[in-house]
Structure formats: structure tokens, C-alpha cells
């Protein structure tokens, strides 16, 4: 996970916690959404890296 994604996940957790403490369901939902977005972006980045690794391991046979 890159630093930006880690920061986004942490911000989301802070929003979620703040929402829970204050009873603000909208803020809590935003926090959960932010965390899910950061997690999804991290997963997509991993897929790209793995695909590149497979391509590199196959080599250039042309």
C-alpha cells in the first residue's frame, strides 16, 4: 500500500470514529466509504504489478 493510500485509509478511519462518537451517521458512512476506496485502489495496484511480473517472467520470444 502506498503512503497516499495509507493516509486515505487512516483519514477514513478517523471520519468513521468521529461519526460514531458524535452520532453523525453520514460522517461514519463517509469514513467507511473512504476506507473501502483506499482498499480497492490498493488491490487494483497489486493486480497491475502481478500482471507486469508475469509478462516479465515470460520474456520476449519475438
Please describe the topology of this protein.
Layout: H1 3-22, H2 25-58
- Strand content is under 5%
Q: What coarse outline follows from CA principal-axis ratios? A: rod-shaped
Chain-averaged pLDDT? 84
What's the number of extended β-strand segments?
0
End-to-end gap: 35 Å
Q: Radius of gyration from the CA trace? A: 17 Å
Distinct helical segment count: 2
Determine the structural class based on helices, strands and strand pairing.
mainly alpha
Portion of residues in helices? over 70%
SSE string, helices as H and strands as E: HH
- Profile the largest sheet: none
Low-confidence stretches: none
Q: Can I get a quick summary?
A:
It contains two helices and no strands. It has helices at residues 3-22, 25-58.
Task: Walk me through what this model shows.
This protein is mainly alpha-helical and 62 residues long. Helix content is 87%, strand content 0%. It is built from two helices and no strands. It has helices at 3-22, 25-58. α1 (3-22) packs antiparallel against α2. The longest helix has 34 residues, at 25-58. The protein starts with a helix and ends with a helix. The mean pLDDT is 84.
Amino acid at each position: 500500500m502506498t503512503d497516499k493510500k495509507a493516509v486515505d485509509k487512516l483519514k477514513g478511519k478517523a471520519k468513521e470514529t468521529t461519526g460514531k462518537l458524535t452520532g453523525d451517521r453520514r460522517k461514519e458512512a463517509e469514513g467507511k466509504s473512504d476506507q473501502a476506496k483506499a482498499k480497492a485502489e490498493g488491490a487494483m495496484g497489486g493486480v497491475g504489478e502481478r500482471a507486469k511480473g508475469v509478462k516479465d517472467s515470460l520474456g520476449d520470444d519475438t
